[in-house]
C-alpha cells in the first residue's frame, strides 16, 4: 500500500532532519511542520513575520491569533513555530510518567512532538525563552491531550524554559481582528505612487493637521483630507492603518475599529507597553 501524504515513518523523519527542519533562527528557521505537511482541523495561514522577515506557518485560527499577538510586541525578538522536541527525551519522559508516546496511527512510528511557539523575548537587555502552546478550552478535558501536554511541560521544565498553554478564552477576538487588519500595513513598500516619498508626504500632512480634526469622526477627517488637502479616496484610512501598525498612533485594540468613532479615539504616541499573552 502506498504511503499516505500525511503519514510519518522513520525515513520521512530523517529526511526532515536532513533538511534542517526545526533548525535556525530568525529568517533562516525552518518549522518542523508546514501548512503542507499536516491535515489541519482549522484554517491554515502563511503570514510574513514582522520580527523575523520570513513566512510563518500557522496550522489553525488559534495559532494565527496567538502569532499575531506575539508578533505585535516590541520585546519579542524571534518566533519559531512548530518547534520540534528531542524525541529521545520525550520518549524517556513518556516512560517515566507511564503514558504512551504520540505515534503515527498508520505507521506506528513515534512522532516528533512539537511546541507551537518558541519565543525569544528581550527584557532589560537579556534574552529569555518562552514556550507557548495554543489549545481550545473545550479540548483541555481530553485525557490524551493532557498526557501530551504533561510530556511537553516536563520537557521544557528540564530545560529551564517557561512553558504554558494559551487558550482561546485568553485571546481577545476584537484584538485579533484588529491585528489581522493592521498586520499587512507595517510597510507601504510596493504600492504604486506618483513619486518617491509620496507616502511620507501624506503621513506628514495627516499628522500636521490632526489638531484640526476636533470632534470629527475618523470617516469625517478622512473626507476632509480628500476635500481640502488633495488626498485620494482611501488614502486617509491607509495612513491611519500604517501609523497604527507602526505604533505611531494608538487605539484600543480590544475594541472593534469603527470609522464613525471620533478622531479623539486615536492618539499619537511614542511607544506602547508590551502586553504578552499570558498562559493558562
UniProtKB/TrEMBL annotation:
InterPro entries: Restrct_endonuc-II-like, TnsA_C, TnsA_N, tRNA_endonuc-like_dom_sf, WH-like_DNA-bd_sf. It holds the Pfam family Tn7_TnsA-like_N. Residues 172-253 form the TnsA endonuclease C-terminal domain. It comes from the Bacteria. Residues 74-168 form the TnsA endonuclease N-terminal domain. This is TnsA endonuclease-like protein.
Amino acid at each position: 500500500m502506498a504511503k499516505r501524504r500525511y503519514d510519518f515513518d522513520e525515513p520521512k523523519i530523517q529526511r526532515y532532519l536532513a533538511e534542517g527542519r526545526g533548525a535556525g533562527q530568525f529568517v533562516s528557521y525552518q518549522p518542523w511542520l508546514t501548512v503542507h505537511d499536516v491535515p489541519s482541523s482549522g484554517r491554515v495561514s502563511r503570514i510574513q513575520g514582522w520580527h523575523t522577515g520570513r513566512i510563518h506557518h500557522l496550522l489553525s485560527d488559534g495559532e494565527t491569533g496567538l502569532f499575531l499577538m506575539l508578533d505585535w510586541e516590541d520585546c519579542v525578538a524571534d518566533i519559531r513555530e512548530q518547534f520540534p522536541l528531542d524525541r529521545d527525551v520525550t520518549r524517556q519522559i513518556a516512560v517515566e510518567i507511564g503514558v504512551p508516546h504520540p505515534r503515527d496511527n498508520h505507521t506506528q512510528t513515534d512522532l516528533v512532538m512539537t511546541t507551537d511557539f518558541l519565543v525569544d523575548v528581550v527584557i532589560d537587555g537579556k534574552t529569555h525563552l518562552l514556550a507557548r502552546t495554543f489549545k481550545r478550552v473545550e479540548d483541555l478535558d481530553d485525557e490524551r491531550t493532557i498526557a501530551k501536554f504533561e510530556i511537553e511541560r516536563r520537557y521544557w521544565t528540564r530545560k529551564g524554559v517557561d512553558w504554558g498553554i494559551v487558550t482561546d478564552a485568553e485571546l481577545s477576538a476584537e484584538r485579533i481582528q484588529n491585528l489581522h487588519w493592521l498586520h499587512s500595513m507595517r510597510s507601504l513598500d510596493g504600492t504604486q505612487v506618483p513619486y518617491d516619498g509620496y507616502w511620507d508626504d501624506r503621513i506628514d500632512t495627516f499628522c500636521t493637521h490632526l489638531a484640526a480634526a476636533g470632534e470629527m469622526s475618523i470617516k469625517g477627517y478622512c473626507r476632509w483630507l480628500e476635500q481640502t488637502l488633495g488626498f485620494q479616496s482611501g488614502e486617509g484610512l491607509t495612513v491611519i492603518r500604517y501609523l497604527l501598525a507602526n505604533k505611531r498612533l494608538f487605539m484600543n485594540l480590544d475594541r472593534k475599529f469603527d470609522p464613525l468613532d471620533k478622531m479623539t479615539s486615536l492618539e499619537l504616541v511614542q511607544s506602547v507597553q508590551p502586553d504578552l499573552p499570558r498562559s493558562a
